[in-house]
C-alpha cells in the first residue's frame, strides 16, 4: 500500500500548486493528479453541482488504487468533503480548508483573520466556520477575489495589473474604516490559484501580515496523516507523477507549467472522461 499513489484533484490547474507542495514535502511518493478542465470553474457553480462533480472526480481517482485522496480545490473542499468521505471509505480524504484554517488560527496573534477566495467558497462560509470552530473568539472577514484566477491562468500574476487588482481587493480589508479600529494580522489564500499572486498580495497588505498558503499547510497535513497510518513510501528514488485532465490537453500543459513550476508537454496529459 505504501507504493500506491496519492490522488489529487481540482477543477483545473490551480491544484497544481498543492501538487507542487506535496512533491516538495513527499518527494518519494507517486501522484495521480486530475484536473476537471471540461467543467471548470467550480467557484461559480451551485453547491449541489460542485458536490456531484467532486464525487465523480474522487471516484475516478479511487479507481487508480490511491492510498490517500487530496481535494486540492477550496470550493470542492467546502461542499464536497463530507460526501466524498462517506463514499470513499477506505483511504484518508484531506481537503485544503481545515489545514488552512488551523494554520491561520496558529499564526494570528489577535484573532482578526481575513480570507480571500472564490465566490463559491466565500458564499459557503467554509473557512469562516472552520476558523471559528478552532478559535471561537476570532473575527473573520472573507471576500471574493475572482479576477485573481484569470490573472494566474493568463500569466499576469506579476506586474502593474496584478498589483492594481490586489490593491483593489485587499486595501479595503486592511485599511481601518474607523480611527483605532484593528485590521487583520493574518490573510488566508483560500484558492489554489492565489499563491501565484503572492508578490502582488504581499505588496497590497504590507510586510507585517501573516499570509497562509493552504497548499503548504495541506502538504504538511498529508505528510502527518500518512506517517500516522504507516502509509509513507520510504524506499526508492523520486516518485512518479501522472497528469489527467477532462479536456484541453494543450492548455493544461501550457498553463499548468507555470503552476507546477516545471515544463509540462501535452503528451504528458492523459484525457479522461468523467
Written description of the protein model:
- The protein is 44% helix and 17% strand.
- With 274 residues, it is α/β, with parallel strands linked by helices.
- The chain folds into two domains: 6-95 and 216-271, Rossmann fold (3-Layer(aba) Sandwich); 98-215, 3-Layer(aba) Sandwich (Rossmann fold), CATH 3.40.50.
- The strands form two sheets. It has a six-stranded parallel sheet, with helices on both faces. Strands 6-5-7-8 form a four-stranded parallel sheet.
- Helix 4 (97-107) crosses helix 6 (126-134), helix 4 (97-107) packs across helix 10 and helix 8 crosses helix 9 (198-205).
Describe this protein with a few key phrases.
274 residues, alpha/beta, Rossmann fold, six-stranded parallel sheet, four-stranded parallel sheet, 11 helices, globular
Distance between the termini: 25 Å
Q: Strand percentage, roughly?
A: 15-25%
* Largest sheet composition: 6 strands, parallel
How many separate helices? 11
The radius of gyration computed from the alpha-carbon positions, rounded to a whole number of angstroms, is 18 Å
Class of the largest domain in CATH? Alpha Beta
Architecture of the largest domain in CATH?
3-Layer(aba) Sandwich
